[in-house]
Design goal:
The complex is a heterodimer of chains A (263) and B (242).
Chain A lengths: L2 H16 L2 H25 L9 H31 L3 H5 L5 H31 L10 H26 L6 H8 L15 H7 L3 H14 L5 H32 L8
Helix pairs in contact in A: 1-5, 2-3, 2-5, 3-5, 3-6, 3-9, 6-7, 6-9, 6-10, 9-10
Chain B lengths: L5 E10 L2 E11 L4 E5 L6 H8 L7 E6 L2 E2 L4 H5 L2 E5 L10 H11 L5 H11 L15 H14 L4 E5 L7 H18 L2 E5 L3 H7 L2 E6 L2 E6 L1 H7 L5 H9 L3
Parallel strand pairs in B: 3-8, 3-9, 6-7, 7-8
Antiparallel strand pairs in B: 1-2, 1-4, 4-5, 9-10
Helix pairs in contact in B: 3-5, 4-5
Classes of the chains: A mainly alpha (263), B alpha/beta (242).
Chain lengths: 263, 242
Amino acid sequence: MKLHRITALVQRHLFLYRRSLPRLMEIFYWPFLDLVVWGFITVYLMKFQGQLPGVVTFFLGALILWDVLFRAQQGITISFLEEIWARNLMNLFASPLKPSEFLAATMALSVFKVTAVSFVMATCALAFYDYNVFMIGLSLIPFVLNLIVAGWIIGVLTTSLIMRFGQEAEVLAWGMVFLFQPISCVFYPIDILPAWLQAIAWGNPAAHIFEGMRAVLTTAVFPGAHLAWATGLNLLYFALMVGWFHYTFNVCKERGLLVRVGE
Amino acid sequence: MPAPIVEVRNLTKRFGDFMAVDGISFDIQPGEILGLLGPNGAGKTTTIQMLLGLITPTAGSIRMFGLDLATHREQILQQVNFSSTYISMPYSLTVEENLWVVAKLYGMTEIHRRIDDVLKKVELEDSRTKVTRRLSSGQMTRLTLAKAFLTEPKVLLLDEPTASLDPDIAHKIRALLKEVRQSSGLSILYTSHNMREMEEMSDRIIFLQKGKIVAQGTAQEITQRFGQRDLEDVFLKLAREP
C-alpha cells in the first residue's frame, strides 16, 4: 500500500466539504436533529426514573454510539457513491490505485466523519441535556473502536453490493445498517429478544458492544467477555468482508461492471 | 527496430454470448500513434478498457514495457494514462483540486509547477480555480486531457479525445499531441470517428469490426487495399458489410 495514494483520495473527499452544504449537513444537521428528538423522548422517560434507572445515559449514550456505527458505515459507502456520482471510478481504477488502498482511504474518511459527528453530538448533549458522554469512562473506548470496525464491515458489504448490482442498489447505503439494528440491541438488552433471535444477535459484534456498554453503566465490573467477543467477531468478519470486496471487484472487472457501475 | 512498448496477443473478451473482442493482436512501438477505427460496438472501447486493467480479458495477454499487465498492474499503470470524451472529473472540485488529486495518486513531485505547465498546454490557465461543474463540455474534455498529460505517461490511450471540441480547439489539441509525441516519445492509441483526424494523426491504423481486426496498415495502404478514395469510404464499406 502506498500512503500518497491513500492521502490523495482522502484529500479528494475533504475538498468536497469545503463548498458543499449538503455534505456539511450530514455532519451537523442530521446528528443534531437525531439528538434533539431522542433527547426529548429521554426527558419524557425521565418522569419514570424510578422504573427505568439511568434512562438518560441509556438512551442518549446508545444514540450517540449508534451514530458512531452508522457514520462509520456511511463513511465507506457514501465515499464510494461519491465516485459513482462523479463518474470518477474509471479515473481511479485506471490509475495505480489498488482496491485495498481505496478501502483504506474510505476507512480513514469514516474515522473523520465519526469524529466530527461524535463531537457535534457530544457537545449538543452536554449543552441541551446536561449529559456528558465521557462520564461513562475510559472503558468505553475499546467498545467505540470496535463499533467503528463493525461499521466498516457493514460499509464494505454494502459497497460490494452496490459495485456488483449498480446504482439500483444505492438505497442500501442508507438502509443496510438498519437491517442490523434489531439484532444490535442498541436501545434494549439482548434478553428482550426471542430466543432464536438472541442466538443470531450473539453473532453480531454490535450486540456485544451495546451489551458491554450497558454493563459498563450498570455494574462496576469491566465486561471483558463482551469486548473479547466483539473484537474476535469483528476481526473475523472484517477479514471475510475485505476478501469479499476483492472477490466482487474481480468479478466486476470480469463482467465489465466496473466501467458501467454509474450507468 | 526497438522492442514494442505495448504487445497485445490474442486478446479476447466475451460477455456471455457476445464476443466483444475476438482474438486481436497488435503492437505499439515507442513514439508511435496507432489509430483504432471501427463502427460503434466494434470493440474499441473494450480494448482500451482492457489495456487500462478495468476489464479482465477472457483470453490473451497484454504486455507493456515488457511486463505482463495481469501481474504488474501497478508498475504499468504508473506509466499509462487515458482520456475520453465519455469520462469526467469530480464536478464539485475545482480544476486545480482535481489535478492535484491525480498528481498525488501517481506520486508526482513539483505538483504546482506541473499543473501550471499542463493547464497552459490545454489553454485552461484561466479556469484554474473554477469549479469543474461550471466548465463547458469542451473545457471538460481539455481537463481530462490535462489529467492525462499531467502524469507524463509513456503510453496514452485516447478514446475520441476531440469529439466534443470545436474545430479550433480540436486542431490545437492534435497539434499538442504531435508536439508531445515529438518531444517525449510518447506512444498513443487513438480512437476517433473523424476519418480525416485519423489520417492526420495515425502512423498506423487498425480497423476493428465485430471484435476482429479486419484491416491494418497506414491510411494509404488501407485505402489502396480496399480500392477506395479515402478512409471514410473504407469505413462505410466495412461498416455496411453484413
